[in-house]
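Reading a protein record of the kind used here takes only a little practice. Think of the row as the fold of the chain written in a discrete alphabet. With that in mind, consider the following protein and its fold in token form:
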Amino acid sequence: MFFGLNNLLKKILPTGLFYRSLIIVAAPTIILQIITTIVFFDSIWIKANKGLTRSLIGELKTLSDIYTGKDSSQIKYLTEQYKFNFDYVINIKDEKLPTSVKERKYSPMDRSLRRELKKVFGSTNYWFDTIKYEEVVEIKIKSNDKIIQILFPRERIAPSSVRLFIFWITFPSLLLVSIAIIFLKNQTKPIINLAKAAEKFGKGDFVSGIRPSGASEIRKAAHEFDKMAKRIDRHLKQRSEMLSGISHDLRTPLTRLKLQLAMLNQKDLSVKMSKDIDEMESMLNSYLQFAKSQVGEESVATNINKIFNEIISEKNNKNLHLDLSVQIVLVGRKNALKRCFNNIIENGLNYAKNVYVHVSKSKNRLFILINDDGHGIPLNQYKNVFKPFYRLDESRNLNQAGVGLGLSIAEDIIRSHGGNIELSEGKYKGLQVRISLPL
């Protein structure tokens, strides 16, 4: 039972920290105001109203009884006393009671007045109107064959102004909630900024100038995140620089070896060793490319159509088919994305006859489907081919000239942009690579 209630509350209540904090602050205030309002109306306003109304109706009953008498001097004296002491306006009219009802259904004052008048004068011997005049209530009472019209101040049966009470109930609540919103905004803004910085850093962008603000705990978290980001960025740069140095140092002796092999008289041996040297150079380039996949490039607005057109122009291969239905601009690292798409397309061209690229988008996602008509990859190898340095021993070797880093680099780049990459069997019976990126 409690588990179901907990799930229901999770679905109904907001998920954001600001709105949850606002509920924590505002809910007790609102509940307190509701309880105060109910207690006031039930225990003070309604009961006081009933007491005042009963006292008034008693006076009206006394006045009605006097008017049924025949002593005109006594009637005149009491009428003047009522007018002077109670601020009444009393008129005797020779007419019938009005038939139109002026009572307000949801007014506690009207309900109390109706109950007391009905109890004392019966259901057909009175009429009242609390709407016609703003500060005065009009009551007509049937006495013998005449109608007694009494006008008296509204405050005689209304202990306080309901509008004033509602104002002083709602205004402080709105003021307190507004102050709470201002403070909560200032407290949650640093957390939002920290989350955005973490998301940006997770996508491979360098985060600089994080300004700690807010509560001491949030400041400490922001300061530690800034230190961590700088350490990771420094480590990645050192790794890239080290591999660049190694690549440069190794290329020099490899170049000398090539020159020496060119001078050998044994051409068969020279050709074989040259192929080995070329493979070593390709391996060095792959290592360096893998190390640089997350380093040294800022995210910018990138035209995806332009990237694919550049790849097609560079490949100049009639077996590469491109389907671009719309113009798509994505914020990302242009060179890294181009390297990713190029690796996948290159694999397809190496191990299949045709490669088909289809680009589309939804409201907030970019979808890229790369199909080929090759032999595909066994289902149980889909996860393995994304591992660094993993090479298939099947007829389709994804990095025949490299070291098994093509799809590893591609996955690393896509994940760093907040996207997904999946493998499946395509509609051309080969491999389908499905890439999804947030716009």
Observations:
- The longest helix spans residues 17-67.
- The chain is about 55% helix and 15% strand.
